[in-house]
Design brief:
The chain has six helices and nine strands. With 227 residues, the protein is an alpha/beta fold.
Length: 227
Amino acid sequence: MSETRTTIFLAGDSTAAEKQTNKRPETGWGEKLSSYFTDDIVIQNRAVNGRSTKSFINEGLLTAIEEAIRPGDYLFIQFGHNDQKEDPARGTLPYGDYQTNLHTFVNTAFKHGAIPVLLSSVSRRHFINDMIDSFSLGKYPQAMKDFAEHHNITFFDIHNRSIELLQSLGPVLSKKYFLHLEPNAASNYPNGIEDDTHFNEQGAAAIAHLIVKEIKESNLSLRHFLK
């Protein structure tokens, strides 16, 4: 059976990445995907904390995926949070090297007969009064969407999906999806934490559910392997 199983490789940042024990209850959405699929699908979560399209490529993380990916596999690509940063090792321009780097990811998949899927960045929990800030990720979500449409690449609009989710929850209930902890509520965060970017287990599961909805509504053969 192992010879015929399809693999979904996840290339992304800390919002998707698997967390170490010393970071719990922080959870990446990539950790919650496998439960939705039959045993025919394997999830290889290659997302890494703090990475942008630029640093993921420059550190050889995409090369490592390229060495493992096979025809019929999938490459899910979600970056933006760290591309936004004013940091020469990570920062990119949304309509410049960000799109150039997306081209590198997509071409890597195509070169090996795999299927690339672009996912716009999950929204930050940034409310202005009672309205979620739809521009917390700047122009990166739209730049990815434009790139996907221009090159006819499968695109999941997780940015807008997550905005809709957070808006429906509102400023108070949405805290329950993020790493918001009172002092001494978790041993890893004795002083408490208020993090509006990273998810707890419930939030990661909610984002994974949004991604599964997109898969169900897509033309990808992957949808036939959902439970």
